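Technical note accompanying the year-one report. For the benefit of new consortium partners, we illustrate the data format agreed upon in the data management plan: each record pairs a sequence with a structure-token string. No post-processing was applied to the example shown here.
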Amino acid sequence: MQESFGAYIPFVEHLGFEMEFFEDGQSELRYLPEESHLNSFNVTHGGALMTLLDVTMATAARSIDKTMGVVTIEMKTSFMQPARGQLVGKGKLLHRSKTMAFTEGTVLDAQGNICAHATGTFKYVPRAIQPNQSNHEISTD
């Protein structure tokens, strides 16, 4: 189970994201896409990149108060160039209120080229329950 994210996230474990840090409103993740994560052009699939951006921004939002969880409310992504090889996701908390976080994230390739950029809005919620506990609804109200 992935513990470095502060929560067990099966999809993140499946993709193989590695947490470098999430502190003081910033985060950094590393990702080496596998062949099954590529699209028909043999570059990293946009869905995998959006997941990397989502998790990168969410961890930046959580880095101020790691006792809270977050749920994605909105995300806008721009793809700038194909993403190949080892990737780095860098996230930044731009502003937060008591219940909301406004973030940005960037995916860079090994040469430091920007492959994708996103902005995201997250709602702070009590931490998710563990997989062996019963499910409950997460309100976005």
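Partners are asked to follow this layout when depositing records. The mean pLDDT is 90.
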